[in-house]
Amino acid sequence: MFISFDQIIFWCYYKIKGGIDMGQFIIPYLAFKDSLKTAEYYKKVFNGKIEYIMKGKDMPNCPEKDLDKVMHLELVFNNNVIYMSDGDARPTDQAMLLLNYEHLDIMKEAYNNMKIEGKIVRELAETFWGAIYGVVEDPYGMKWEFHYTIPKN
Fold first, then answer.
1. Closest by alpha carbon to 54, among 85, 88, 18, 16?
2. pTM of structure
3. How many angstroms separate the CA atoms of 13 and 146, rounded?
4. Within 10 A of 83 (CB to CB), how many other CB atoms are there?
5. Most buried residue among 10, 33, 76, 91 by CB atoms closer than 10 A?
6. Does residue 48 contact residue 42 with C-beta atoms inside 8 Å?
7. Closest CA to 147 of 5, 1, 3
8. What is the pLDDT of residue 100?
9. Are the CB atoms for 6 and 78 separated by under 8 Å?
10. How does DSSP assign 49-100, residue by residue?
């Protein structure tokens, strides 16, 4: 039985929200100068939902200059979770986010939504390893890999 990346992330998210012992998994935690603006963009691209926002004013003893900053934000889309916060981090080529889709039409929609304001790094195309794959750099400098495994007949 094949279990997709999306199913694994959904299982992990369920475990987090359910408070059940979940073992170990990875949730990307991204910092941007304006994480709320960035999350709104991702929400639109991926048809997602911002589940939670904590600002500095929600924390005890927060410095005055940080009261309106996002300290923690949870974005959920297609059974995926991304954490975000405000910070002075710069995008890097050391990491890219790979989205592994089970449905080609959903992947194409997200890819096309992101390329409107993003920069195509690699056109969406069939690959030698039996997938449709492409890469887009979003307006905030993050590179997103879009991947769909072509079903075998």
1. 85
2. 0.75
3. 21
4. 15
5. 76
6. yes
7. 5
8. 92
9. yes
10. EEEEEEEGGGSTT--GGGTTSEEEEEEEETTEEEEEEE------TT--EEEE
What are residue 70's DSSP bridge partners? 55
SS3 142: coil
Pairing of strands 49-55, 29-32: unpaired
First to last CA, the chain: 16
Q: What distance in Å separates the CA atoms of residue 139 and residue 37, rounded to the nearest whole number?
A: 11
Answer whether 147's CB lies under 8 Å from 131's CB. Answer: yes
Using DSSP bridges, classify how beta strands 29-32 and 131-137 pair: parallel, antiparallel or unpaired.
unpaired
Count the residues in the chain: 153
Q: Which of 71, 69, 97 is nearest to 82 (CA)?
A: 97
| Tens of each residue's pLDDT in the chain, 153 residues | 333 444 444 444 444 455 444 455 678 999 999 999 999 999 999 999 999 999 999 988 889 999 999 999 999 998 899 999 998 777 676 788 999 999 999 999 999 999 999 999 999 999 999 999 999 999 999 999 999 999 988
